[in-house]
Request: fold
Amino acid sequence: RSTKAALTGASLIHEISKFDKEKEIVHKEQIQQDFEESVEYLNQFNRKLQAANEKRSSTYKNRISSLVDTNMKTHNIKVKMDKEEAEQREMRLQRFYKKQFDHFKIMK
Reply:
């Protein structure tokens, strides 16, 4: 009886250690699978983030380009207006001096 109990005990210990080893292998496999899933999730997230950054970057580039174009157009209009204003001022001055000169001729 004690031999049978010892064999049963030894068999039980062997089965438990075998179960623990199998459990450890399954646990390691689960950890590996979880790790691979995490890596894949992070890669997907990184790709989405990169795409969003590229989109945002191109949006900013377009906005900046648009602002530069608008500023250049505004500058060109202002230069043109300044030139026209200077020409008008010149014409007014010429008319004023002509009147002064005509008036001076009349007075003489």
Notes: Residues 2-107 form the longest helix (106 residues). Residues 9-79 form one domain. The chain has a mean pLDDT of 83. Helices lie at 2-107.
